[in-house]
């Protein structure tokens, strides 16, 4: 990795990484709407056709909210980064990769819930939960990388920040696994409801979850004095 | 919401928010063209097939103009914002969300007007009007937020600006509701015409509607002296 | 249009306009590939299926090159703009609008040339030429606006620049009309070949066409001294 | 190419070129997911339907990794560029063009491997290899252009850098040709595996391949002293 010729590009400011990521998130969030289709119904049945697609709207809402939260997380994380290197690009690519997958399980869930097969619905919800958990896992890798690379961060960033974010990502993995199990074992619709609620939960807590007693205990880090 | 660890990211400049929004608008405005499809006609009928799709072209034009106006509004609003916070991001997400929905009712209207069922056409136009009104409602939330958060605005921004914009958004909600009712109760085509005219109206007035006597009376705000 | 409340946003730097336009061009140029589809052929016929789609590849190439030239034109024009106002945004929207249409006639031409109906092929090529001419016409409006708004331009921009660009756009309109006529009256394939050649011609001349004797005579402007 | 009127736009900083390219890469990497479709299976068979699509997932992964590496390459190259001119834009367009093609062979490979026809699978893998090789060839043109245009580069860039990158691109062409031959002559699946491995190989070596003895010998350039 050491380059005798020149060192340009090994480390760089984060402007292109954030611009690229913003574009990716913007496309993902907008592609989701492509799965809202004109219902294929006989003449005169458009209204009921539109209404019967409601699981598609709920799935759309869940994924839209999820990507919105990912964007906020991403913005909040990169605000703390001074310089990016190749490793950071790859953990960033893993976040973009799993986020870009989201329209796929969204379409699967939306389709399955508009059919009547219970087994398919269970599979679909479990599949969505799997991708949701993978997305949280990619954040875990992302935060873990930054938790160990103080040199890439801005000086004023608290030492506790990224270890605490790591906990939040781990909680996310767990929550999507639980949602998948509930959706698979109990009722697919219950899983779908959780998919809508989870991003809201994340949005609300993203400012301060790691100050909560529980996660503080998990992170086992003393409060930084005067940061 | 208070973070003992560090305060980075709670407040930030608006560059990523506008870049992300620009990408979203660009994608929405470009996705619309995906609903202009090669007509599925027997050999030798391409010309008539293309001509018979005219409602699709009108719907495309209406939605394109709408998104263009949304972009101008967005640019004009963020030009006045100094700093964004989490609340502003969420009202911004609500504007992006409703704008991103637009290709869906556009396709529904375009399809229905190419079929012969009057009832479906009424439903389709009413549906478009509903999303159009929701989009104006999301602007209402956006402007309302900024009308109450002077601290996020640039110093030179008139105190009257965002309250007046709020009125304009409210007028928009009303106009789309009226267009929906006309389209549903009177004639779908009349509704479609209004959908094309409305963004034009907005584009023309966006510089000065709130100086008009009517809206001034609604806003009930004395003219700011020397702004 | 005069705003007693504040003047922010009436005039602004061009950064968001160019960022938005870049995103739109990027999406258009990339959407074109969506019309390259896996051929729907019986097993064992993939190779011939891929080869038989060659008109699609040519159409793709023509449109890709066209959008690339539009981007270069756009960049070159905005490099000369100091400030944008609402009127410039609208002529810019008209350029983006006609460019965004391009994937539609591209798909129509690609489809028609893969069928065997001569009449459809003529219509398709004429349709492509129509949109190509409209795109040049939107540039005409764009350059015309800037030719008359010296106050929006950077100081060092030659007075002759945008009037000369106007001529180039007019020549483009004429060339696409001619290509459409040749494609319709003579042979569709000849039209398609012209569509591929035209952007190349534009790319080559975009640096200096207006210095050519012909266009100089049309523009009837004395050479600016010492610009 | 010399313009008596003004010189603006002939040379320019690279900000719009990189912003445009970032958008294009972002769209390509995200469009890939559109080929992951809800399986068209009878009720109750969703799980096996999802599992049987595994070649689609592998193809998606291969192309995603390829685009990610292209983006890293692009970023690394443009970090060394001070100014862009028209020629650089055209070699850049050629890189974007071949990258934008990638979703097409990805879909072809993904489809063919889900069918049972050996001949089609061979064609599909060879087709993917062809586009992969073309993409490396466009990089070759890109690096070749910069290897000869020292005046466009930043001062601190080593003279050896772009000649060495050229070698790396040439190796890439060769590797994709070999992968295509193996896929065509030996086994399609072997080709697919190589498609996944190649970007990883590129990612790992992109920091330092040209320091390796082999490529140094090919490039036949003495080490620059003190760069």
From TrEMBL, chains A, B, C, D:
Membrane-topology annotation of the record: Multi-pass membrane protein
Chief location bin: membrane
Family in the record: Belongs to the TMEM175 family.
Residues that span the membrane, as ranges: 17-34, 54-72, 93-113, 125-146, 167-186, 192-212
Keyword set, alphabetical order: Ion channel, Ion transport, Membrane, Potassium, Potassium channel, Potassium transport, Transmembrane, Transmembrane helix, Transport
Compartments where located: Membrane
GO CC list: membrane
Stretch forming the signal peptide: none
Keyword Endoplasmic reticulum included in the entry's annotation: no
Catalytic activity: K(+)(in) = K(+)(out)
The species this protein was found in: Micromonospora phaseoli
A molecular function (GO) term: potassium channel activity
Membrane as UniProt keyword: yes
Name of this chain's protein: Uncharacterized membrane protein
């Amino acid at each position: 990795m050491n380059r005798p010729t020149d060192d340009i590009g090994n480390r760089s400011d984060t402007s292109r990484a954030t611009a690229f990521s913003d574009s990716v998130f913007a496309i993902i969030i907008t592609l989701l709407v492509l799965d809202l289709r004109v219902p294929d119904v006989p003449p005169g049945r458009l209204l009921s056709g539109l209404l019967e697609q409601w699981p598609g709207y709920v799935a759309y809402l869940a994924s839209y909210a999820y990507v919105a939260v990912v964007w906020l997380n991403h913005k909040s994380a990169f605000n703390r980064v001074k310089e990016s290197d190749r490793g950071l690009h790859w953990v960033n690519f893993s976040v973009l990769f799993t986020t870009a997958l989201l329209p796929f399980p969204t379409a699967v869930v939306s389709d399955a819930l508009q059919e009547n097969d219970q087994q398919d619905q269970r599979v679909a919800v479990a599949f969505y939960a799997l991708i949701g958990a993978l997305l949280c896992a990619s954040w875990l890798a992302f935060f873990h990388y930054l938790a160990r690379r103080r040199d890439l961060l801005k000086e004023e960033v608290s030492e506790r920040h990224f270890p605490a974010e790591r906990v939040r990502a781990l909680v996310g993995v767990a929550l999507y696994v639980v949602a998948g199990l509930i959706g698979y074992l109990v009722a697919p619709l219950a899983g779908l409801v959780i998919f809508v609620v989870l991003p809201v939960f994340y949005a609300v807590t993203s400012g301060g979850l790691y100050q909560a007693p529980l996660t503080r205990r998990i992170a086992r880090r003393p409060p930084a004095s005067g940061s």
